Amino acid sequence: MSALKGHLEAKGLTAGYGQTRIIEGISLSAPAGSRIALLGRNGVGKTTTLASLVGQTRRHAGTLTLDGVDLTELSASRRAELGLGYVPQTRDIFRSLSVEENLVTGLKGRPRAALEEAYAMFPRLKERRRNGGGALSGGEQQMLSVARALLGQPSVLLLDEPLEGLAPVICDQLMQVLTTLKMTIILVEQQVDRALDFAEQVIFLERGRVMHQGAVADVRNDHALTERFLGVDLVEQTGTGA
Ligand SMILES: Nc1ncnc2c1ncn2[C@@H]1O[C@H](COP(=O)(O)OP(=O)(O)OP(=O)(O)O)[C@@H](O)[C@H]1O
Prior knowledge:
GO terms for molecular function: ATP binding; ATP hydrolysis activity; branched-chain amino acid transmembrane transporter activity. This is ABC transporter ATP-binding protein. This protein has about 240 residues and is of the alpha/beta class. The protein has helices at about 45-55, 75-80, 100-105, 115-120, 125, 140-150, 170-180, 190-200, 215-220, 225-230, 235-240; strands spanning about 10-15, 20-30, 35-40, 60-65, 70, 85, 155-160, 185-190, 200-205, 210-215. It has one domain (about 10-240): Rossmann fold (3-Layer(aba) Sandwich), CATH 3.40.50.300. The chain has 11 helices and 10 strands. The strands form 2 sheets. A 6-stranded mixed β-sheet has the order 6-7-8-3-9-10, sandwiched between helices. A 4-stranded antiparallel β-sheet has the order 2-1-4-5, covered by helices on one side. The protein is globular and about 50 Å long. Adenosine-5'-triphosphate binds next to β2 and α1.
């Protein structure tokens, strides 16, 4: 059996939109199979970081490798083919296509029978497979967006605020599914508690830079860290303190 793939390594990534640099010198290492929460206050560059990893921003400096393969100069579509899966904050599903047609766009040449993987993961999508993407609830749209990314069999999955606007029970279901996945996952999420329950490592961003990378366990107990980078005292907020 081959070793687990999905070791993503960024070094000194500086990128933005046009001439504007939003992230500066981002270095991060996501070992194969690791789960990383990318956190920070609004506007610090979390979305831009994910978009830069998948090749959707303008790069000014830095390098990116996946399992030693240099992705730096590769297009977004080539990066996707090589294993980067992306679920953007906008859940970019096709509203005029049915659920099943949306899923088919994620197959990337795989046989249609692979759709059953998506339906097994999210039975709700099977029930709704003939419905238009635009007729789905927010939770169903998010399931569709995640399922479509997974059909491409990525070795790294980048998720941008997947829980935004979803009811708590749907958040529970989605996180439950994500927990079963055997791949590298980088999660941007405003629901910090859920992100920390899910991840092993945390990266804090501030003004487009990585300010801290460490184990979740250390972050949970460090009031100063969470207060500084998130503006919340997690220990107080969740009542898990002394
Ligand atoms: N397409 C764009 N063109 C120009 N500037 C942009 C664009 N998208 C984002 N920005 C700017 O980049 C900065 C970082 O935004 P980004 O969305 O990456 O942060 P974020 O940490 O994900 O924020 P949030 O938590 O609010 O989603 C912001 O100042 C934002 O205005």
